[in-house]
Amino acid sequence: MNRHSRGFGLIELMIALVLSLVVVLGVVQIFIAAKNTYVSQNAAAVMQEDARFALSKMVQEIRMVGMFGCLGSITDASTAGDFNASQMTPIRWDNTNRKLILVTTDVGAGGSKPDWTVVSDCRNTATAYTGVRAPATGQLTFAVRRLVYNFSNNQLSMGVGAGDPPLSVLVDNVRTFSVTFGVAASATDVAASAYTSNPTDPAMIRSVRLTLTLFDPKNNVREQTFNVVAALRNRLL
User: Fold this and answer.
1) What are the pLDDT digits (tens) for 6-26?
2) How far from 145 is each of 14, 85, 109, 164, CA to CA, in Å?
3) CA torsion, points 106, 108, 114, 120, in degrees to nearest 10?
4) Which long-range contacts (CB under 8 A, 24 or more apart) does 5-9 make?
5) H helical segments located in the chain
6) What's the confidence (pLDDT) of residue 13?
7) Which long-range contacts (CB under 8 A, 24 or more apart) does 136-143 make?
8) Judging by DSSP bridges, how do beta strands 140-152 and 99-105 pair with one another?
9) Do strands 174-183 and 194-196 pair parallel, antiparallel, or not at all (unpaired)?
10) Minimal CA–CA distance to 139: which of 157, 155, 126?
11) What's the Cα-to-Cα distance from 209 to each of 54, 62, 206, rounded to whole Å?
């Protein structure tokens, strides 16, 4: 037989098939690894964005806790006479029911209807009224709301208003949520000396530490824990 007309032998064909299979498996493996990396990075980015959204909102509200105007003494003219009690305990962590309760000045102009409005001339008088109250000439108003952050059923939710307000979900897939307070050793100290989840005197609180752990329901990425500390900047606590 003419050597120029010979075809491939069985051994040569098998070697070619094996080499082709190795190349294909290598390409598939690279593709799978790249896809898994993309999925895990995307899941991690979603968790980070959820944590950033929830914690930044809470920090913004916490920083305004107890800021009820420009005077330290406020007359309670609310309908139910409940402003003074809220003023005395403007921040509280209910560890049993996993609720963070804040009484804070409305941040910006996009908040909901306030629970109270403090009307003051910032010189001699300051009075708290229920709901919305229009100021007189020469007066300022400070909208005050009661916020409730609740952790239940792997969800972190928020409600506005007195009692047990309706809750709206902020973040899903929450494994744990905890709150501790940085308290000062004395009323004159400006820095926190210890952290506790149950401070005996709200006036000693100087900062709040929030810890949030999120998980991916599809297990594409490991659980991530996020921590942030918010310093109280108002002058009343």
Assistant:
1) 666 777 778 878 888 888 888
2) 77, 14, 13, 14
3) 80
4) none
5) 10-63, 83-88
6) 77
7) 140/69, 140/70, 141/117, 142/67, 142/68, 142/69, 142/105, 142/117, 142/118, 143/105, 143/106, 143/111, 143/114, 143/116, 143/117
8) antiparallel
9) antiparallel
10) 126
11) 14, 10, 10
Q: What is the mean pLDDT of residues 35-58?
A: 89
In the block, residue with structure tokens 């051994």: 11
Contact 128, 83 (CB under 8 A): yes
pLDDT attached to residue 6 = 61
Task: Give this prediction's pTM.
Answer: 0.81
pLDDT in the model for residue 108: 56
**pLDDT score at 34:** 79
The mean pLDDT value of the chain amounts to 86
The helix or strand, by DSSP H or E, that contains position 187, with its residue range, turns out to be: none
Give the separation between CA 202 and CA 106, rounded to whole angstroms.
20
Location of structure tokens 């493996």: 29
**Distance in angstroms (rounded) separating the CA atoms of residues 234 and 224:** 32
pLDDT score recorded for residue 120: 94
